[in-house]
Amino acid sequence: MFPFRLLKKTPKTWVNVYSIPWLISAIFLVGINLRPALTSLGPVLPEVRSETGLGAWGASLLTTLPVLCLGLLAPPAARWGRRWGIERLLAGALLLLAAGTGLRGMGGLYGLFAGTLMAGCAIGIAGSLLPGIVKRDFPRHAGPMTGLYTMALCLGGALAAGLTVPLAQWSGQSWEGALSAWGLPALAAALLWFPLARENNKQRTDTAQHRGLWRHPLAWQVTLYMGLQSSTAYMTFSWLPTILQSRGIPPLQAGFLLSASIMVQTLTALIGPSLATWGRDQRAAIMVMLALTATGLAGVLYGSMLWAWFWITLIGLGMGGAFSIALVLIVLRAPNAEIAGDLSGMVQGIGYVLAALGPLILGLIPEYLGSWQWAGVPFGAALMGAAWAALGAGRDRHIHL
């Protein structure tokens, strides 16, 4: 019934009222495609390193590269969207994502790095555009729509984490074919956005970017919270299967555990924004999510593996809620769609550049410190920093420029 309530309550914008179910489906499918390129690598990373001879620095760079691209491409995405049309740019980004994801399994190590670079750029553009669309077309349903989109992100990530190893086994132990297969859903999403791109072709504007955001303390607090909680997530996506294997978990089960963790995220990803908007502000909800994440990660690193599924569940519940609230903060702290789009570019741009440091640092720990036991240091630092930033970002305030 959720889409039909939107039909009655959402103000008429450029979207014809009868196309709103199509728009909701298109947003959901975009969300499905923004994580497979990131979560499909971790379960087969040991095989990739074994077959290609990739060292610790190369593996760390490979896991960091797409997150860094997310940060570098997010800031200009809002400006490009105003110039060429958000829907048109989003359709182009999805085509780039399909091409880059497919290229990862072609051309050996060079194709893997080049495809990862392309996919990261595409995800950076697409991910930064969606909060502005939600603010523009669903202003009174920001929480539910952000939850729906975040649930799709988690679902896509979970499917890629859990099915990549079986796909590799089905294709004759070929990690190349398994990684390339995730380009097909991105191609399907691009085709779904083409009608929307044509319909909104005349809605482009050339309004200036709100430079005052970079001097606003609240914008920086939201940015730091997004970056630090994302750093925890991308460290988990990239290295959790390897950490689990180091603790005696077989590769297939390690991939399924990561998949289960991301699948659990759909629960708090869907309801987290709505729960957060019911209270006076979002600080209490954020602290609960960060505490769940910290407890689960501590269990995976230092607890008994007999409790592995319990630790994984806690990680999923915490990360899903922390990320979905981070996205809804962009909408809640912005007074209008234009500032929401620019804030999204700033938050995801600087935030993901900061987040990219996490996988890089974590991947070097066993090389230089000899054990994953030290992994708790970068995880703990990121979580404590996110909690500190949330004390400001979670307040009921607007960014006034």
Can you describe what's shown?
- By secondary structure, the chain is mainly alpha-helical.
- It has a single domain, classed as MFS general substrate transporter like domains (Growth Hormone, Chain: A, Up-down Bundle), CATH 1.20.1250.
- Helix content is 79%, strand content 0%.
- It is built from 16 helices and no strands.
- The protein has helices at residues 2-9, 20-33, 36-39, 45-52, 56-84, 86-103, 108-137, 142-170, 175-180, 183-199, 217-246, 251-278, 283-302, 308-333, 337-369, 376-393.
- Helix 8 crosses helix 14 (308-333) and helix 11 (217-246) packs antiparallel against helix 14 (308-333).
- The two termini are 38 Å apart.
- Residues 1-18 and 202-208 have low confidence and may be disordered.
List the helices and strands and how they pair.
Blueprint: H1 2-9, H2 20-33, H3 36-39, H4 45-52, H5 56-84, H6 86-103, H7 108-137, H8 142-170, H9 175-180, H10 183-199, H11 217-246, H12 251-278, H13 283-302, H14 308-333, H15 337-369, H16 376-393
Helix pairs in contact: 2-7, 2-8, 2-10, 5-6, 5-7, 5-15, 6-7, 6-10, 7-14, 7-15, 8-12, 8-14, 11-12, 11-14, 11-15, 11-16, 12-14, 13-14, 13-16, 14-15
Provide a compact summary of the structure.
This protein is 79% helix and 0% strand. It has 401 residues and is mostly helical. The chain has a single domain, classed as MFS general substrate transporter like domains (Growth Hormone, Chain: A, Up-down Bundle), CATH 1.20.1250.20.
Query: Which bin fits the share of residues in helices?
Result: over 70%
Number of strands: 0
| Unreliable parts | 1-18, 202-208
CATH class categorisation: Mainly Alpha
Which sheet architecture does the biggest sheet show?
A: none
How would the global form be characterised? globular
Taking the alpha carbons of the first and last residues, their distance comes to 38 Å
Mean pLDDT, all residues = 82
Domain count, please report it.
Answer: 1
CATH T-level fold name: Growth Hormone, Chain: A
